[in-house]
Write a structure and sequence with these properties.
mainly beta; 4 helices
């Protein structure tokens, strides 16, 4: 049996939603809803350089049921509390904590990047379908923006083994219920990685159906689904353990919705769908013929510029986190820097005299840009605010 990739459990947070009237009433002793959420980082195209971290979870974790139907999509609960993995749990006791008073706990609200646009009221029927059952939770506390590190998103291949990470049963109840546990004050917030599972079929656009013998439980809704490389491939939504089926929202669907509806995107790359070997071999053969027939033309066309970037902070300076490239066409490309400060950049179809800019992002700000022209033919070093930047052709 394959093992869960390391680090994925550090990506998934615990979430409680409660009914509250901030500043007036005591918070309820029992949580109204409990679930899981994945730490992600999103960039806004209409605000270049604006990057925020969010918790990605299922909408039904933070919304009431619609009266009279039992379906998800009702109004948002007034209080959404979030704990990072490994944090000490803070219990809510009867008549002890007022709504809005949440020491040591991150409080969240709905981001406008969500399918609902951040609206807190009940959703219209058009938004109450399974592929729209996700939200981004925004946390104003500046400390949250320093949590974790960027997470790679990926599409799922049919034969991939995947793992689901979440909080089975939750803990925000005063009495035991089936499948739940109770954390005392100060207990370590600890999630569970369960699997492996594999994709059996796709029941609807934007959805995944995962099969496997391992269990998932209530409280794991909104948990991350990760492939063997540790990339996010989906969001756990529901389970039928008797039928050994898990219903999930594909990460690629969420990525595309952010792109087309909100002009935003994850800051880390997405793996493309694997092409079947027969088609791949035929494509390679056609490519070879095209290269032979058009060799002279090929030499004159714009070429891909492959660069290796190395960044070192100046003495006492801040450590850069992401390198950004803005092309002459206005297209922006971003790559996360490794812990050693390295990244590879591919500038597709670059003309010899094309003008472009390179800049860095730190935890709290973006640097000014370096103006460059064409693909560097030899290594070159630049001083960029608080860092030394070396560009070298690959």
């Amino acid at each position: 049996m394959s093992k869960a990739p390391p680090d994925i459990r550090q990506r998934v947070w615990y979430i409680e939603a409660r009914t509250c009237s901030p500043g007036k009433d005591f918070a309820s002793e029992d949580a109204a809803s409990m679930g899981s959420g994945v730490l992600v980082e999103i960039e806004h195209r209409d605000q270049p350089g604006t990057v925020r971290r969010y918790l990605l979870t299922c909408a039904h974790v933070v919304r009431r049921k619609v009266p009279g139907t039992g379906d998800w999509g009702g109004a948002v609960y007034e209080e959404i509390l979030c704990w990072r993995p490994g944090q000490g749990y803070t219990r809510t006791y009867r008549d002890k904590r007022r709504c809005g008073d949440h020491p040591d706990i991150f409080r969240a609200s709905l981001s406008p990047l969500s399918p609902c646009g951040g609206r807190p009221d009940a959703l219209p029927d058009a938004l109450r379908d399974a592929p729209n059952d996700w939200v981004l939770l925004d946390i104003d506390d500046p400390a949250f923006q320093k949590q974790g590190r960027p997470l790679r998103w990926s599409e799922i291949d049919e034969d991939d083994s995947v793992w689901i990470v979440g909080y089975p049963g939750g803990a925000g109840l005063s009495k035991h219920a089936a499948g739940t546990g109770i954390w005392v004050n100060g207990s370590i917030v600890e999630n569970l990685a369960t699997g492996p599972f594999s994709q059996e079929r796709t029941p609807a656009a934007g959805m995944l159906s995962l099969s496997g013998v391992d269990e998932t439980r209530p409280g794991m809704s909104g948990g991350g689904i990760f492939d063997q490389s540790g990339a996010l491939v989906g969001l756990h939504r529901a389970a039928d353990d008797m039928a050994m089926q898990r219903n999930a929202i594909a990460a690629s669907h969420i990525r595309d919705a952010l792109d087309t509806r909100r002009n935003a995107f994850p800051t880390t790359p997405t793996k493309t769908v694997q092409i079947p070997s027969g088609i791949r071999r035929a494509a390679i053969a056609l490519l070879v013929l095209a290269l032979v027939a058009g060799a002279s033309w090929w030499m004159l066309r714009p070429r891909d510029c492959l660069l290796q970037v190395r960044v070192q902070p100046v003495s006492g300076g801040k450590t850069a986190r992401v390198v950004d490239v803005r092309r002459e066409s206005g297209k922006t490309e971003s790559r996360p820097l490794s812990p050693g400060g390295a990244a590879g950049i591919t500038l597709a179809g670059m003309s010899p005299g094309e003008n472009w800019q390179l800049s860095l992002r730190f935890d709290d700000a973006a640097s000014q840009a370096i103006d460059l022209s064409g693909c560097p033919a030899a290594p070159a070093t630049h001083e960029l605010e608080e860092a030394h930047v070396e560009l070298a052709p690959q």
